[in-house]
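Exercise 7.
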Amino acid sequence: MPLVLRRPMEAVYERRLASTLAGLSRPQHVGIMLDGNRRWARKAGHDDVREGYRAGGAKATEFLGWCAAAGIGHVTLFMLSDDNLGRPADELGPLIEVIEETVRDISATGRPWEVQVIGSLDLLPGDTARVLKEAAAGTAGRGGLKVDVAVGYGGRREIVDAVKSAFEEHLAAGGDPVELVGRFDEEHISRHLYSSAGDRTDFIIRTSGEQRLSGFLLWQSAYAEMHWVDCYWPAFRRVDFLRALRSYAGRERRFGK
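Solution. The predicted structure, written as tokens, is:
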């Protein structure tokens, strides 16, 4: 179908789909795995995969607007794993640049979002950690949509760091580590996760057709619903997002009971 005809028809379908979601349950914390930027660039005929990173960064900003409009309160964007930090410098560098640009964009004055960067920022190259922290710090107290940007992030590392943090806090207060071992529970980990916005994820979306978590929000996703999308992240449309919300609304969440 010619593009000139397809777009108006998609717009009509999108409006109808959005109307069917009125009054239905929706997730309050959505984790999104922004997968397929490089493959999108190659498929689109770009010799430079940076074009995929740039398109993916712009899509992230657009996606946050969709989430805010849908009444979602918390979004975690998985932009770079700790495993990804092992990529060659000529590949990692452009990706880091786009992540910096994206965080500055979503943190800019006028954006009604409160941004936090989570992950092992000390592992990032150069001044990246400082750039990301400074951009996010300017959003403190804005209210509205809470946005966590996961950079240099690994779910296993987060759990290990949470345990360490819990013990460090206890010891700093003069506590006995043996006593803490005796009463250590899930809440000690939940309170020391990277994000201050919550320890439970309702819904995780992954683009590109891959069907695995790859270490994303391992603790928080214990009872999360999963949704896999075949398209690459830069090609992800609002209609795909609305379909994901429709899928979520149609599920019975029993939380293991």
